[in-house]
Amino acid sequence: MSETAAEPAKPKIKHDWYQTDALVVVTILLKNASSDKVKVHYGDRSLSVTSEIPNSDSEYSLELELAHEIVPSMCTYIVTPSKIEVKMRKKEGLRWNVLEGEGKEEKIKAIPQAVIDASGPQKPPKLFKKDWDKIEKDIKKMEEEEKPEGDAALNALFQKIYGEGSDEVRRAMNKSFVESGGTVLSTNWNQVAKEKVEVKPPDGLEFKKWDS
């Protein structure tokens, strides 16, 4: 009983495509194809590519019915060690959604570059700028609305008087506070300027000076 040799599997050769404003480019990933064995035929809406497959008895064939029309006389192809690249000139400046079709696909016009140029420079997107002055005012308002209590309230009051007072008020506060050991805080410069401010401890307490 004779055995029939199995036919070698036909290699799978992929193809892909992309487009520019004027061209549709089909790339066939057939390696080491011989340029004199590659045959390309262009129709108004068709592409046919055939080639011998190196180191094989098989022949590669690609038959495409294109989605839109091309200009056959302005189409070209090149053969490189890694691929066959076919460049087809578009008849109309359309954006192709698909490579193959029946010619009934929606025609989407590309915006001509001349129109884009004529429209002038594109404005950059508007950036939202923070109003730091407003933020600072809001923070100050929030701080003013916070009502401190006890010693904090007293300190806040002194700070406000010192900050908003005249030079004489500030001098009076500084002199009275320092000379009295922190027991007196006066805003009357006319009174404080005449003599040293005496220490006045709270009721029930006695001030005692420690000898060094």
From TrEMBL:
Domain named CS is located at 10-100
What is this protein identified as? Suppressor of G2 allele of SKP1
Q: Which domain of life is it from?
A: Eukaryota
Residues covered by the SGS domain:
119-212
A GO CC term assigned to this protein in UniProt: cytoplasm
Q: Which SUPFAM superfamilies match?
A: HSP20-like chaperones
Single GO term (MF):
protein-folding chaperone binding
Q: Which organism is it from?
A: Euphydryas editha
